Amino acid sequence: MIPPSFQYHAPSSVDDAISILTQYGDEAKILAGGHSLLPMMKLRFAEPEHLVDINNIDSLKGIREENGMIVIGAMTSESALIASALLQEKCPLLPEAAKLIADPQVRNRGTIGGDIAHGDPGNDHPALMLALDARFTLVGPNGSREVEASDFFLGTFYTALEADEIMTEIRIAPQAANTGASYHKLKRKTGDFATAAAAVVIEMSGDTCQSARISLTNLAATAFRATEAEAVLVGQTISDELIKQAAAKVMEACDPAEDLRGDAEYKTHMGGEMTRRAIKDAIKRAGGN
Ligand SMILES: Cc1cc2nc3c(=O)[nH]c(=O)nc-3n(C[C@H](O)[C@H](O)[C@H](O)COP(=O)(O)OP(=O)(O)OC[C@H]3O[C@@H](n4cnc5c(N)ncnc54)[C@H](O)[C@@H]3O)c2cc1C
Predict the structure, then answer these.
(1) Is the pTM of this model over 0.90?
(2) Parallel, antiparallel, or unpaired for β 28-31 and 50-53?
(3) For residues 219 and 235, what is the distance between their CA atoms, to the nearest angstrom?
(4) What is the pLDDT of residues 141-186, one digit of tens each?
(5) How far apart, in Å, are the Cα atoms of 170 and each of 128, 138, 188, 232, 237?
(6) Which of 62, 177, 218, 270 has the fewest other C-beta atoms within 10 Å?
(7) What is the mean pLDDT of residues 180-194?
(8) CB-based contacts of 250: which residues, under 8 Å, 6+ apart?
(9) Is the confidence at residue 289, as pLDDT, over 90?
(10) Is 201 exposed, middle or buried (0-12, 13-18, 19+ CB in 10 A)?
(11) Which of 118, 144, 166 is the pocket-test mutation for ligand 1 (most atoms within 8 Å of CB)?
(12) Rounded mean pLDDT, 49-63
């Protein structure tokens, strides 16, 4: 299938990209890795008249540590996340989960910023960002603003980004001591999107859970945090029964759309099961029993 025709722009700075976005408004779209946008254009779900390719803007790529935070450029590819020694040491959840995204070809071009900005509840980074309590830097004609992941995902393919804004950076705190994280993703085959997936970050003190963040992929109109499930765990001595209760709370919060990957009942059940497995792994990694 061939997408409708468009005018192609390839700015080499964020300022130039914003000028083009400001000039063309809703008629323009940012092109990052293209692995979500181009399929949508071929299907005519998106018909931008101007594509603003931001691949030439070097300042949007790379992973560094700054003032005690991990800073990831929005144009950093999934492959670069996987290869990052800094992430493997200080935020191992991200490279581990990035390996579960699509296939090597998609991971070589697809970017973390594009995965988040697309607002697809089936993408993996949104739930990971919620579990990691990430903050996003959005830059537009009036300067830059910081948005927390919890305020960013507003609906399916609908985020806090304005048409003339670019996500430039993602900020995440390094994993704290006595903390474990895990992402469990059920997919029909290698390279597929999640049927259901759960991201869990847990801080333990012995057998007691000090804090918990649980978020879900593809189980509602957006990725979401299951706060009632988290409350079941916090301050408690962890047992199999408690983990089962937390998974039950997750299932109560799920509202998935039926599709080729399964009906709502099946996906909800798998959401509970992925949560149960991810909690167990996270606790073990945090040094709990
Ligand atoms: C076969 C296949 C399997 C896949 N499987 C998975 C999977 O299992 N899990 C998963 O998470 N994803 C999966 N994807 C999607 C893939 O990860 C995409 O790369 C990702 O969703 C979008 O990132 P991108 O860099 O390609 O962005 P693009 O497709 O270029 O852009 C996506 C959207 O985000 C906007 N955008 C991009 N970057 C920015 C920015 N910096 N600031 C503001 N707006 C921006 C664009 O304008 C566009 O609207 C799959 C894709 C394919 C083709």
Answers:
(1) yes
(2) parallel
(3) 27
(4) 999 999 999 999 999 999 999 999 999 999 999 999 999 999 999 9
(5) 12, 9, 30, 29, 34
(6) 177
(7) 96
(8) 198, 214, 216, 226, 229, 271, 272, 275
(9) no
(10) buried
(11) 118
(12) 98
Superfamily of domain 181-285: CO dehydrogenase flavoprotein, C-terminal domain (3.30.390.50)
Residue nearest to atom 51 of ligand 1 (CA): 35
Q: Region 254-263: what's the mean pLDDT?
A: 95
**Would you say residue 216 has pLDDT above 90?**
yes
Alpha helices by DSSP H, listed for the chain, are: 14-24, 37-42, 78-83, 85-90, 93-98, 104-109, 112-117, 125-131, 227-233, 240-253, 264-285
Cα of 33 from ligand 1 centre, angstroms = 6
Q: How far apart are CA 96 and CA 101, in angstroms?
A: 10
- Look up residue 280 and give its two tokens: 């167990």
Asked if residue 119 has its Cβ within 6 Å of ligand 1, the reply is: no
Atom of ligand 1 nearest to the CA of 168: 41
Token pair 């390279």 is at which residue? Answer: 191
Q: The dihedral of CA 174, 175, 176, 177: what is its sign? A: negative
What six digits make up the tokens of 110?
């697809």
What is the pLDDT averaged over residues 187-200?
96
7-53: which CATH number, 3.90.380.10, 3.30.43.10, 3.40.50.10330, 3.30.70.890? 3.30.43.10
